[in-house]
Amino acid sequence: MHGSYPDYWARPVPSFGAADPRIVLVGLAPGLHGANRTGRPFTGDYAGELLYQTLYEAGLATRAQSVSADDGLELKHARIINAVKCVPPGNKPLPEEIRACNGYLRAELASLKRVRVVLALGRVGHDAFLLASGLKRSAFPFGHGREHRLEETRYLVDSYHCSRYNTSTGVLTEAMFRKVVRRACELARL
Ligand code: URA
Fold first, then answer.
1. Residue pLDDT, tens place only, 96-116
2. Residues enclosing ligand 1, CB less than 6 A?
3. What residue ranges define each of the domains in the chain, with the CATH number in brackets?
């Protein structure tokens, strides 16, 4: 990717957000011209427009738009972790990439002691979280708006991914996304 786009970040994209979050959002992978360009998850493509706008409205971001990795935006009580760290070939992660990156997700989750809600952005994020946590898929079926109680005070909440594809086909509306993010905040007692 370096050859085609010399100004792009084009490396593994680190997670972004609070040092000690109450909510972790698990995304999919860097977009070719989004996070792979800017170096911050969901930054520079459509999926991020809806995401950061919604996080801002919920009080989880200091700004409604994420423009670049050095624009000063901060997340409050929240952190975004992608299931896959590098832009996948054809912009679609392969199962072996998801498996290969899963140890990073596992280690990062283990280091975060005060997470109350994991908000899965799409089925890949949901499945990656279960794999990283040693939980069975059959026990936690994915569905938009589903709330899975993991422990006394820990929940997995599912959302359809906030991709342009999902919003343009009406699979996910802005109102649906706002609602699920608000609910995640409630469960996290924020
Ligand atoms: N950009 C990301 O960083 N993650 C996604 O899941 C989608 C776009």
1. 999 999 999 999 999 999 999
2. 27-31, 34-35, 41-42, 45, 47, 82, 121
3. 16-187 (3.40.470.10)
Write down the pLDDT at residue 153. 84
- From the CA of 135, how far away is ligand 1's center (Å)? 23
For ligand 1, atom 1, which residue shows the shortest CA distance? 42
Question: Which atom of ligand 1 is least distant from the CA of 40?
Answer: 3
pLDDT of residue 2 exceeding 80, the answer is no
Interval between CA 155 and ligand 1 midpoint (Å): 22
Question: Which phi-psi region, left, alpha or beta, contains residue 91 (left: φ > 0; alpha: ψ -120 to 50)?
Answer: left
